[in-house]
Automatic annotation (TrEMBL):
Organism: Sulfurifustis variabilis
Cofactor note: Binds 1 pyridoxal phosphate per subunit.
Positions of modified residues (N6-(pyridoxal phosphate)lysine): 243
CDD domains recorded: OAT_like
Membership in a protein family: Belongs to the class-III pyridoxal-phosphate-dependent aminotransferase family. ArgD subfamily.
Protein name: Acetylornithine aminotransferase
Transmembrane stretches, start-end: none
InterPro entries hit by this protein: AcOrn/SuccOrn_fam, Aminotrans_3, Aminotrans_3_PPA_site, Class-III_PLP-dep_AT, PyrdxlP-dep_Trfase, PyrdxlP-dep_Trfase_major, PyrdxlP-dep_Trfase_small
One GO term of the biological process aspect: L-arginine biosynthetic process
Gene name for this UniProt entry: argD
Keyword NADP: no
Length: 391
C-alpha cells in the first residue's frame, strides 16, 4: 500500500535516468519524452550547463533568507527582466504562487485606485493553478468542485472574445485587471485569433487595467518566441513565468512593468524559499543556455516541422477534429475522449499527454533533433490512427 495521497492517476512506469529528450526506466527501456514534464525540461534532461550550475551552487550556498541580499536573485532578476522586457521580479517556487503574487498585485493596484471590490477578468477554459485563489481564477469547474467556497473577485468571460471583455468593462466599474494565457495549455492547446492579445492590450490601456499574462506554460521559448506575447508585439503589465524557468528545479516568477513594478512594499508579500540561491543560479543558467542555443528560433522551426508532419500523416483520418499549435505547443483534437492514447504511446516508447479529455498534447523539449521530432510525429500519428480504428 502506498503512503502517497491519491492526487494523480499515475501511469505504470517509473523513470530512473534521463538524457536530452530520452528517459530510461528501471528495466533499461528507453522512452522519447514528448511532454518534458509538462513543459518543464525544455533544455532536455541532464543538460550539462544546468547540472553544473546546480552542482556548484549546492557546494557553495543553498539558502540564506530574503532578509539578506541574494546575489543570484539579483542576477536572475536582471536576466529575466531583460529577456521579458519587464522591470521587476518577485520569485516564487511554483507557477500557482507566481499567479498568487499577480492576483495580490492586481488587488493592491485596485485598492490604490479606490475600487470597492477589485475584480480580475478571467477566461473560460483557463488554468492558473491549484491554490485556492488560482483554482478560483481557473475556468474549469472540475478543478473547483469540492473546494467551495471559492475566492471571489473574478469575472469570467469566454476565451478569444474581445467583445465579452468590452461588455464587462462597460458594466463592472470594479474591474482592475485581465488575467489570460496567450495560448490555453491545460484547456486544450487553444490558440486565439490573431489580434486577441493586442485587443486586450488596447482595452486595458483605455480603461487603466493591468494586462496580466500567464506565460507559465507558453513562456521561455516554448511557442517559438521567448514569450508568446511577442507574436503580437505587445507587452503585459504583469507576466508570470515558471515551468521551464528552472528546467526541473522549482522556481516561478511574477514580473511587472511600469506602475505595477513598484507596487509591492516590504511586508506585502514574501516566500521563505522563493528566490533562493540554488533556484536562481539554475534559472540564470537556463536563460543563458536558451540564448546560446537560440531555442526560440529552434522551437519555431521544429514546431512548424512537427505541425506539418502531423497534418500530413493525419490527413483524412476520421475522428481528428483539428491539428493545431504554436511553436512546440502542439495539440491533436479528436472527436472523443482519448486517455487510452497515453498507454498506447507509452507502450511504443513515447510520452505524450491528453488534456481537455480529447486533445493529445505534445510539449517536447526544445533541444530535439530533427530525427527525434520526426520519430515522435510518426509514432504518435500511428497511435492516433490505431486508436481511431479503420476509417
Ligand atoms: C502549470 C501551470 C500553472 C501552475 O503551475 P504550478 O507550478 O503547477 O503551480 C499555472 N498556469 C499555467 C498556464 C500552467 O500551465
Amino acid at each position: 500500500m502506498t503512503h502517497l495521497m491519491q492526487t494523480y492517476a499515475r501511469l505504470p512506469v517509473t523513470f530512473v535516468r534521463g538524457e536530452g529528450a530520452w528517459l530510461w526506466d528501471a528495466e533499461g527501456k528507453r522512452y522519447l519524452d514528448a511532454l518534458a514534464g509538462v513543459a518543464v525540461t525544455s533544455l532536455g534532461h541532464a543538460h550539462p550547463a544546468v547540472t553544473q550550475a546546480i552542482r556548484e551552487q549546492a557546494g557553495a550556498l543553498l539558502h540564506t533568507s530574503n532578509w539578506y541580499g541574494i546575489d543570484w536573485q539579483e542576477r536572475l532578476g536582471d536576466a529575466l527582466c531583460a529577456v521579458a522586457g519587464m522591470d521587476s521580479a518577485f520569485f516564487s517556487n511554483s507557477g500557482a504562487e507566481a499567479n498568487e503574487a499577480a492576483i495580490k498585485l492586481a488587488r493592491l493596484y485596485g485598492h490604490k485606485r479606490a475600487a470597492k471590490n477589485p475584480t480580475i477578468v478571467v477566461m473560460e477554459g483557463s488554468f492558473h493553478g491549484r491554490t485556492l485563489a488560482t483554482l478560483s481564477a481557473s475556468g474549469n469547474r472540475r478543478i473547483q468542485a469540492g473546494f467551495e467556497p471559492l475566492v471571489t473577485g473574478f469575472n469570467r468571460v469566454p476565451y478569444n472574445d474581445l467583445e465579452a471583455v468590452r461588455h464587462v468593462g462597460e458594466h463592472n466599474p470594479d474591474v482592475v485587471a485581465v488575467l489570460v494565457e496567450p495560448v490555453l495549455g491545460e484547456g486544450g492547446v487553444v490558440v486565439p485569433d490573431r489580434g486577441y492579445l493586442k485587443g486586450l492590450r488596447a482595452q486595458c490601456d483605455a480603461r487603466g487595467w493591468l494586462l496580466m499574462l500567464d506565460e507559465i506554460q507558453t513562456g521561455m521559448c516554448r511557442t517559438g518566441r521567448w514569450f508568446a506575447c511577442e507574436h503580437e508585439g505587445i507587452r503585459p503589465d504583469v507576466m508570470t513565468v515558471a515551468k521551464a524557468l528552472g528546467n526541473g528545479v522549482p522556481i516561478g516568477a511574477c514580473l511587472a512593468r511600469g506602475d505595477a513594478a513598484a507596487l509591492f512594499q516590504p511586508g506585502n508579500h514574501g516566500s521563505t524559499y522563493g528566490g533562493n540561491p540554488l533556484a536562481c543560479r539554475t534559472a540564470t543558467a537556463v536563460i543563458e543556455a536558451m540564448r546560446e542555443q537560440r531555442l526560440d528560433a529552434r522551437a519555431a522551426t521544429l514546431g512548424a516541422r512537427m505541425l506539418a508532419g502531423f497534418r500530413e500523416r493525419l490527413e483524412g483520418a476520421k475522428g481528428v477534429r483539428q491539428v493545431r499549435g504554436l511553436g512546440l505547443m502542439l495539440g491533436i483534437e479528436l472527436d472523443r475522449p482519448c486517455r487510452e492514447i497515453l498507454t498506447a504511446a507509452l507502450a511504443r516508447g513515447v510520452l505524450v499527454n491528453v488534456t481537455a479529455d480529447s486533445v493529445v498534447r505534445l510539449l517536447p523539449p526544445l533541444i530535439l533533433t530533427d530525427e527525434e521530432a520526426d520519430r515522435i510525429v510518426a509514432t504518435v500519428s500511428d497511435v492516433v490512427r490505431e486508436f481511431l480504428g479503420p476509417p
